[in-house]
Design a protein that fits this description.
33% of the residues lie in helices and 33% in strands. It is α/β, with parallel strands linked by helices.
Length: 238
């Protein structure tokens, strides 16, 4: 297991100092190799050096900036974008930025974002070719239906039953609780966004921001995200 991680900071003096202090306090295993507020200096440095994590605390207001930052991620490096605008954060993620932290930065949000980045880094090095072809049995009144897990779009709770929505537009009613499916599918990129909804993140089409927000799935269903699960969901999508 890697014991030392390397970080770079792209931001002004005050922002860089703030990030440096938090990183040293919460993640002493990180070494800060380079700080700059100039995008081109960062580009030049990273063309010659590798790093694990890049903190970005500059406005992302043009396509050129996004293009250069996307090149950083191909090193491979993970990017964490610092912003005071949720809309800017969502746009950054859509453009390929690994993660974000909303300002004012709290210790908790900082720790969650960095831990998620480390987890993503480790997972990106692990391949699981058998996962997309894994199957699950769905008990029915006539027996059971055997389906590929990656064909499940979403699961919806209905008391002690669960409705399973599949890519072929069929719906299967199963006499098991949503909690059971949550336990069995958590290792296959499923996430419970609401007490009624467990979704396959591979079939997520869009997130619509709001108090909790909503997701649009591959079957065009629009589902609510609960307020208490919103932050965890957004971090999961980073």
């Amino acid at each position: 297991m890697k014991n030392t991680f390397h970080a770079c900071i792209l931001g002004d003096k005050d922002g860089s100092e703030s990030i440096s202090l938090l990183l040293k306090k919460e993640f002493p295993e990180f070494k800060i190799d380079f700080c700059t507020e100039n995008l081109w200096s960062a580009s030049d440095y990273l063309s010659k050096n590798s790093t694990d994590l890049i903190f970005v605390d500059i406005p992302l207001n043009d396509e050129t900036t996004f293009e250069i930052l996307s090149e950083f991620q191909q090193k491979p490096s993970l990017l964490i974008y610092m912003t005071d605008s949720e809309n800017s954060a969502i746009q950054a993620v859509k453009k390929g930025i690994t993660g974000y932290i909303l300002k004012p930065v709290t210790n908790l949000n900082f720790v969650l974002a960095v831990n998620k980045a480390i987890e993503n880094s480790r997972h990106s090095k692990i391949t699981s070719p058998s996962l997309p072809h894994s199957k699950i049995n769905l008990p029915t009144l006539q027996g059971f239906k055997r389906v590929n897990i990656d064909e499940i779009i979403r699961c919806e709770a209905d008391s002690n039953y669960t409705f399973i929505y599949l890519l072929d537009k069929t719906k299967v009613m199963v006499s098991r609780t949503l909690h059971d499916f949550e336990k069995n599918l958590s290792g296959y990129n499923f996430f419970r966004i609401h007490h009624k909804h467990l979704i396959n993140l591979e079939h997520l089409r869009e997130y619509i921001k709001g108090k909790g927000g909503q997701v649009v799935m591959a079957d065009n269903s629009v589902l609510d995200v609960s307020i208490r699960r919103k932050n965890e969901f957004l971090h999961k999508m980073i």
